[in-house]
Amino acid sequence: MRQLILIKHAAPLKIDGVSSHAWPLSEEGREKSRQLVDRIRSFEPAIFVSSDEPKAKETADILAENLGTLVRTEARLAEQDRSDVPIMDTREYISTMALVFSRPREHVIGTETAADA
Hints:
Elements: H1 27-40, E1 47-50, H2 54-67, E2 70-73, H3 90-102
Parallel strand pairs: 1-2
């Protein structure tokens, strides 16, 4: 039976002054991606589909390389556009994202609503 496994990208390297859409993985993120390999191996993924954002693509590349599968990028998988948002501390980011998803048709942060994204 075919299954869809959703995997969030690993921890990015947050670079002040650079849009989160352009952040690569941090070294911790690369290590966590390698650790994830054994946890998903039994699902026998045939392909990884990733957004073209570096942190997402790099996560998929690490998994695919270690599992002998392919990666395809899909531009429509992009995150909400927050290119105008500065780096936030973790607590503030989590509470803001909770607000974004509780009010999907309202503009909370970034350049678009959650519904538009």
